[in-house]
Amino acid sequence: MVAALGDLTSGPVLPHMRDAMLASAEGRQILKDRPRVNTHTVDMDKLAQLPEGTWGRTYVTWLERCGVTPDTREPVRYLYLNSGPVDVSVHDYFVHYERLIMDCIRRWCQSWTHRMGISVGLPASCSDIDYLYFHQVHYVNDPELAYVMQRYRECHDFYHALCGVPVNVEYELALKFFEFANLGLPMAGLAAAFGHLRLNSAKRAKLFKEFVPWAVKCGSSAQSLITVYWEKRWEHNVEDMKKEFGIWDPPEVKWRRPLKEAQAATAKEHKRRVQLRIINPDASASVNIRCHIAGKQVAPVSE
């Protein structure tokens, strides 16, 4: 649902992000090549062999420490009616946009009230609107803007790795403040504005006292990160990249577990995946394995 809201609210901002890319040599090359970020397009084993301090090694180390993979980002959606794909006018677009937003809010309310054990009356679903998922994605009627949104989503973990920020609610919110200041995406702003309500008072105070000032100042003054061709910079020194982009480290963060423990868990999961390929090579060739922190949950994700 969060991804759906991100797709829907990003419409007015995506042209500005594309313009920023067109104004940059790297950005223009990204739009030309349209690279994707997943375990099929990025050789993780090769990156793991790069020297310490390189961007590629930093990225792989971050993935290992957080127990995530680049295969967990949802594709951007078409706006799709039961009667077929919509090539809409501006007015019609915002009509459907509003209905989709309300449907997302309704679903969120249902989920929240169910968890709280509350029974309330909610409006019916917008039954004539569906969300359909495509591997090759488009955003309404502009595939280039669809790619810009997909690029942002797939590069989100790069921002985590570059800034050295773990994956949890507190640090994710800090990065949302950073992204909103840097890119201006409404969904990042909404997450930053309301997501802190999930934190207890101590964590909320720490977020606004320490991390928000860093995120807003650093994000607003840094180079627009959507213009960076990260895949061309694997062998670059990560500290030099930070200086180039105008980024400095956030306040000290706390990791959920030591790096060695995280790497051991990753190695164990990698061994399990290799064994799976040996046992069933046909299935593993067509399926990505998505593992969460500590390998506690494993789910197939179709290509």
Automatic annotation (TrEMBL):
GO cellular component, one term: extrinsic component of mitochondrial inner membrane
Catalytic activity: a 4-hydroxy-3-methoxy-5-(all-trans-polyprenyl)benzoate + H(+) = a 2-methoxy-6-(all-trans-polyprenyl)phenol + CO2
Coiled coil: none
Alphabetical keyword list: Lyase, Membrane, Metal-binding, Mitochondrion, Mitochondrion inner membrane, Ubiquinone, Ubiquinone biosynthesis, Zinc
Matching Pfam families: Coq4 (PF05019)
A molecular function (GO) term: 4-hydroxy-3-methoxy-5-polyprenylbenzoate decarboxylase activity
Domain of life: Eukaryota
Family: Belongs to the COQ4 family.
Role, per record: Lyase that catalyzes the C1-decarboxylation of 4-hydroxy-3-methoxy-5-(all-trans-polyprenyl)benzoic acid into 2-methoxy-6-(all-trans-polyprenyl)phenol during ubiquinone biosynthesis.
Oligomeric form and interacting partners: Component of a multi-subunit COQ enzyme complex, composed of at least COQ3, COQ4, COQ5, COQ6, COQ7 and COQ9.
Protein name: 4-hydroxy-3-methoxy-5-polyprenylbenzoate decarboxylase
Biological source species: Grifola frondosa (Maitake)
Gene: COQ4
